[in-house]
Write a structure and sequence with these properties.
With 385 residues, the protein is of the alpha/beta class. The protein has helices at residues 9-25, 41-45, 60-63, 72-81, 83-93, 111-126, 144-160, 169-172, 179-200, 213-220, 247-271, 299-312, 344-375, and strands spanning 3-8, 31-38, 55-57, 100-106, 131-137, 163-168, 225-234, 285-292, 317-324, 330-340. The chain has a ten-stranded mixed sheet, sandwiched between helices. α6 (111-126) packs parallel to α7 (144-160). The longest helix has 32 residues, at 344-375. It binds guanosine-5'-diphosphate. Guanosine-5'-diphosphate binds at residues 9-11, 14, 68, 106, 108-113, 136, 138, 142, 146, 169, 183, 186-187. Guanosine-5'-diphosphate (GDP) is lined by residues 9-11, 14, 68, 106, 108-113, 136, 138, 142, 146, 169, 183, 186-187.
């Protein structure tokens, strides 16, 4: 699937930067265009792989390249004011090769949190191609303001895109890890998953059940929130049989091994840590993809995995297929659950956001009172001007 990736804000820019690097290194060629948009010049300069001409600084007249300081209302305002220069940058890069737009943003901050929904709305109005979003949720210890930003941005973003993937920083950070290391690991996890998902529709290899682009778009068509699971195993070289008469027996043993491995990897992907934890039985649709060398993939394994998943999430449409990667030294399974409705972390985020909103209102009104008190002289003094 050919993707036009747009990173909005710092987290979004860093992730698209990593996608570009991964796409080049693995020669996947699924990121056909990439753009990083930010109000902070320093963040744009910190990127490594997105070419300079694909980094767009917005809001210069308002914030002079210094960012919006976690104020997502200002982020949204700046994006709306500069929407024509964003649109122009996208048009100039051309969208004729694009199957879908993919907007990535950290929802807890300011620029991406405010700007991503504004951009999604515009793209939906202008282009036929679907617009997918990836929203990064803040971890609990980032505080009330970040939760409030994320909860409000989520409400808008999910309505403006064709499908919103979520990644929960809180569920992925580990005790005692520096923030930099934690982000590096989380970002790798994200890129690995989405590269298989979007790369799947781009395979030129002839496989037994190769996934095509329409299977991905049909899975994501219903809208709402999506989550992604992943599992991987290295491939250990298979010994070739030396006696011809054992060859058939060996082939059927290999098929059995491969089928069992596909099923077990898919189970691990589905039951392991998802980008956001949720009750997958509430999903409307699911897509499973097995990536790896062609002789490690087989139809029987995929069919069994699909049946198992259909049984687990009864009533959901389940699609599945292969992504043959001839020289790969691993097999990986990706599972996408789209349109999930039971997502406890969202409910918790909304609760934290409401509490933060109340506290902010209270502090502001108390502050106003105190300030009035500070200036009060029982009318015995008059201000100068
Ligand atoms: P903006 O530049 O104003 O849009 O703000 P950010 O993109 O820095 O958004 C802040 C949120 O993104 C916070 O919740 C951070 O935890 C998260 N964040 C920042 N950088 C990264 C990153 O590299 N990876 C991940 N997963 N999250 C990040």
């Amino acid at each position: 699937m050919k993707i036009f990736a747009i990173g909005f804000g710092q987290a979004g820019g860093k992730l698209v930067d990593l996608f570009v690097e991964f796409d080049k290194r693995t020669r996947q060629n699924c990121i056909v265009r990439a753009l990083a948009i930010n109000t902070a010049k320093a963040d744009l300069l910190g990127l490594k792989h997105i070419p300079m001409e694909d980094r767009l600084l917005i809001g210069q007249s308002r914030v002079k390249g210094h960012g919006v300081g976690a104020d997502n209302e200002l982020g949204a305002k700046v994006a709306a004011e500069d929407i024509y220069s964003i649109q122009n940058a996208i048009d100039k890069r051309g969208t004729h090769q694009t199957d879908a737009f993919f907007i990535i943003a950290g929802l807890g901050g300011g620029t991406g949190s405010g700007g991503a929904p504004v951009l999604a709305r515009r793209l939906k109005k202008l282009y036929m191609e679907p617009v997918y979003g990836l929203g990064i949720l803040p971890s609990r210890d980032e505080g009330g303001l970040y939760s409030l930003n994320a909860a409000r941005s989520f409400m808008s973003f999910v309505k403006e895109v064709d499908n919103l993937f979520l990644f929960d920083n809180d569920a992925w950070k580990r005790e005692g890890e520096s923030l930099k290391d934690a982000y590096a690991l989380m970002n790798e996890e994200i890129v690995r998953r989405f590269s298989i998902l979007f790369g799947a529709g781009e395979s030129n290899e002839v496989g037994q059940m190769v996934v095509d682009v329409s299977e991905i778009t049909n899975t994501l068509k219903g809208g709402g929130v999506s989550t992604v699971g992943y599992a991987m195993e290295p491939v250990v070289g298979k010994k070739k049989g030396i006696f011809g008469r054992f060859k058939k027996e060996k082939q059927s043993m290999d098929t059995l091994d491969t089928t069992a491995r596909i099923l077990s990897l898919m189970r691990r992907a589905v039951m392991g840590r998802l980008t956001i934890q949720c009750d997958i039985s509430t999903a409307e649709k699911a897509l499973i993809v097995m990536a790896g060398p062609p002789d490690e993939l087989n139809r029987k394994g995929m069919e069994k995995a699909k049946l198992w998943l259909e049984d687990l999430i009864k009533g959901a449409e389940v699609r599945g297929g292969d992504y043959p990667v001839p020289k790969s030294n691993k097999v990986a399974a990706v599972a996408v659950f789209s349109g999930v409705t039971d997502v406890p972390r969202i409910k918790e985020l909304q609760k934290m956001a409401l509490e933060a909103h109340e506290t902010i209102k209270e502090v502001e009104s108390k502050k106003d009172e105190k300030f009035e008190e500070l200036l009060d002289t029982d009318e015995s003094l008059k201000p100068l001007i």
